[in-house]
Amino acid sequence: MLSQHLQHELQQFETYLLTSIQNLTYPEHLKESVQYSLLAGGKRIRPLLSIAIAKAAKIPSSSVYPLAAAIEMIHTYSLIHDDLPAMDDDDLRRGKPTNHIVFDEATAILAGDALLTESFHQMTLLSVPATIIVDLIQSLSACAGGGGMVGGQILDIAAENKTVTLSELRNIHYLKTGKMIEIAVVGAAKVAQLSDEKIQQLQHYSEAVGVAFQIQDDILDVVGTTQQLGKPQGSDLTNGKSTYVSLLGLVGAKRALESEYERALQCLIDTKMEISELLELTRLICQRQG
Predict the structure, then answer these.
(1) Residue 164 maps to which CATH number?
(2) How far is CA 248 from CA 155, 170, 174, 211, in A?
């Protein structure tokens, strides 16, 4: 459960996201498909991390909205495509029927394409020097593309119904999940024009929290409910995926989660910044109560 303060921050961002989509001149059917998935809720962890970095850096939250929107658009496009019959073939996402079930496969594919393309337009709306925008676009494309999220997805597919090592699994999830968390954190730090030292500390934090995010997701796939997950419980097992639980056992996965939580916490402390919002999100990701 988010604090009142972060709930307010999230509401402000949701308003920005809604306005951004409403202003697009798309064919109506495509626009409906894009809105259906992008505005379906979800944890919004990545945008919230960007906003928390802005708060820690004492810059307006709105200054990172275009970055946060771009990241959420890429994340949503990846979910739409993940759910397709050729990928994970899921019927449920965020507690609702998946995009291709409500619309059709062709529309779902094109909605994902539209979101990916719009994300780079969002990046041009950042109010920072052009050199920083270029750097951020380069970083976003690297984190989202074949050397990041997409590369992690293809490795994840290749690993289905196979036994992978813990190192291989960590690399898959660092690319597939961690890189987009990294750009949310490090990208916002660059918008804030923090020092190289603080950016490096926050990059280490993003690596730890990215791994923690995936371990917690793997744990919930075993012990959570479909309502909690927003998708069928046990879907990773059904799809033959290697997980931290399948490799380490439930107890071992929980120990690994605790280790990453402690590492992330130390990285935040090392920044010597105001970390209350970041600490709240880290606890949320790791399902800590305080």
Answers:
(1) 1.10.600.10
(2) 20, 12, 17, 14
